[in-house]
Design goal:
two-stranded antiparallel sheet; 2 strands
């Protein structure tokens, strides 16, 4: 550097013959760089907002399907506000399958008590009759659902 200190001044002002100046004394604000930073900040804010909206929508859909699954299959619910104990809350499948199983068990017990050794053919008849009624009902529901009479 020279004795007058113009080397540092030349670096600051941009007269470094190809080097990148730290700051321009005539215009200390790099407006292009500031505009780029503001634009990037706005873009980042929009991206975070869109990400939060997408996350909220997927969380809502997940909760809806989770609630539907808990309704159909059952779930474990806390027994108190501390969340320490849990008990199983029966779902739709548990209730209906349990009721159908109980009905079959009662029918089989009754036929065993009434018919003795002939209870096996009677029980097979009960099951086949139930399957027939379920099959015919399902076909009627399908024909109604597809626009048939």
């Amino acid at each position: 550097m020279s004795s007058s200190g113009d080397g540092l001044l030349a670096f600051i002002n941009g007269d470094t013959s190809g080097g990148i100046p730290i700051v321009n004394v005539a215009n200390p604000v790099n407006w292009g760089r500031l505009g780029q930073t503001i634009g990037t900040s706005i873009l980042a804010t929009v991206v975070v907002g869109v990400t939060n909206i997408v996350d909220a929508i997927t969380d809502a859909i997940d909760r809806i399907f989770g609630g539907l699954a808990a309704f159909i299959a059952g779930s474990y619910q806390p027994t108190n506000s501390t969340g320490i104990g849990f008990e199983y809350a029966r779902g739709l499948l548990d209730v209906t399958i349990g009721a159908v199983g109980g009905a079959y068990a009662s029918a089989f017990q009754y036929s065993s008590a009434q018919f003795g050794i002939l209870a096996l053919p009677v029980n097979v008849g009960i099951v086949l009759g139930s399957v027939y009624v379920l099959s015919v009902g399902g076909q009627k529901i399908a024909s109604r659902a597809t626009g048939g009479g």
